[in-house]
Design brief:
Layout lengths: L2 H23 L5 H15 L8 H9 L9 H8 L68 H5 L8 E6 L6 E6 L4 H10 L1 H6 L11 H4 E2 L2 H8 L32 E2 L1
Parallel strand pairs: 3-4
Antiparallel strand pairs: 1-2
Helix pairs in contact: 1-2, 2-3
Length: 261
């Protein structure tokens, strides 16, 4: 075999190694997303297959889910669809599950154990033998922790009212929770953020967008096929490399070298 015939295979092997190195060094890629990127890179550079059917080869390489039996490629591509996901605290939580009330605390919180409920006369009840004082062994220089309600100076009671604030710079959701005693505080905060929320920009995506950062393809059509029907492409672009920095440390980036899929 001539040297000219060996050159394309050598170039493809070097490109595959460089791509794999960048994928493993990308801190944005969680293990499922990393597996998807590696499968597409394998199908594009290494696996023998028909030209123009790279995604089919990647789907065969990923196989099927052991629990549902569906192709794993479908769920991984749907999860890579660029979008914004609000924090879990912004969901519709019930009392006792939502974050504590964040209204300001006026007095320091002091733990007061509840007295056991009884239907009989307390004077006629037989007194129980008092339990011995607990002994806690700590090291020298131990400082007892400060209650979070006193540390942050918040109410901390079970919340019943939620107010969503939109960051005026990123459009991200900031949930605010309040208890029944601070309904007036929740209404005041809702009125304060009303105009700010109306003028907030579209949220910067915080999930997905890694496939367009490594490979060139009509990804919008691919995402529309695998993502939920409500998915719409973000205004900031499909590639995670094109999104504005929301203020977090930037991911490790190297010069991009796109390959057509």
């Amino acid at each position: 075999m001539s040297a000219a015939a060996d050159a394309p295979r050598l170039d493809r092997a070097e490109t595959y190694a460089e791509t794999v190195h960048r994928i493993y060094g990308d801190r944005r890629a969680a293990p499922p997303a990393r597996e998807l990127l590696l499968a597409v890179a394998y199908a594009l550079f290494v696996a023998p297959g028909e030209p123009g059917r790279v995604l089919n080869t990647a789907a065969r390489a990923l196989g099927r889910s052991t629990t549902t039996g569906h192709p794993r490629f479908d769920a991984l591509v749907a999860d890579d669809a660029p979008r914004y996901e609000p924090p879990r605290a912004a969901a519709d939580w019930g009392p006792g599950q939502a974050p504590g009330c964040e209204a300001p605390r006026l007095r320091p919180y002091v733990y007061r154990p509840r007295r056991p409920a009884t239907t009989e006369d307390e004077t006629a009840a037989v007194p129980l033998r008092p339990l011995p004082e607990p002994v806690v062994h700590v090291g020298p220089g131990y400082v007892p922790p400060v209650d979070v309600r006193n540390e942050r100076r918040i109410c901390g009671a079970d919340s019943h009212h939620k107010v969503l604030e939109l960051d005026p710079r990123t459009g991200w959701t900031i949930p605010r929770w309040f208890c029944k005693r601070h309904v007036d505080h929740a209404e005041r905060v809702a009125e304060q953020v009303r105009e700010q929320n109306a003028a907030a920009p579209a949220p910067i995506p915080n999930r997905g967008g890694l496939l367009p950062a490594y490979f060139k393809a009509p990804w919008e059509d691919v995402y529309r096929h695998y993502a939920p029907a409500s998915w719409e492409p973000p205004t900031y672009g499909l590639s995670a490399d094109d999104w504005p920095d929301p203020g977090n440390p930037p991911p490790a980036r190297t010069p991009r070298r796109l390959r057509a899929v």
